[in-house]
Amino acid sequence: MQLKVIKTEKQYQEALKRLEEIFDSKKGSKTADELELLSLLIEKYENEKSPIDLPDPIEAIKFRMEQLGYKQKDLAEAIGLKSRVSEILNRKRKLTLDMIRKLHITLGIPTEVLLREY
Q1: Thinking of the domain 57-114, which architecture would CATH place it in?
Q2: In the 8-state DSSP scheme, what is residue 116?
């Protein structure tokens, strides 16, 4: 298959089909290189056609807390009182810049997510 930039839905579908055909290529083989390049072209097309929006900051915090098994008291150590955490998670209090920094460090959530309007 001759690789080129994917510009149409038809080309995208053909690329997906080819990707499926060569998906189990052995590392170092000619088709492994094709697989890597094809994956990059598909990713570029998907990012342009349907970019994924950043999540809501509060939902991101809740999700990350769940992933880490954190409770509100765990977060209180990073950003203040347990009641303050509750207010933030219930959208009654806005995140401050200092809280955003601490949440970024504590939970590993990108600052661009935490800075979003909610």
Answers
A1: Orthogonal Bundle (1.10)
A2: S
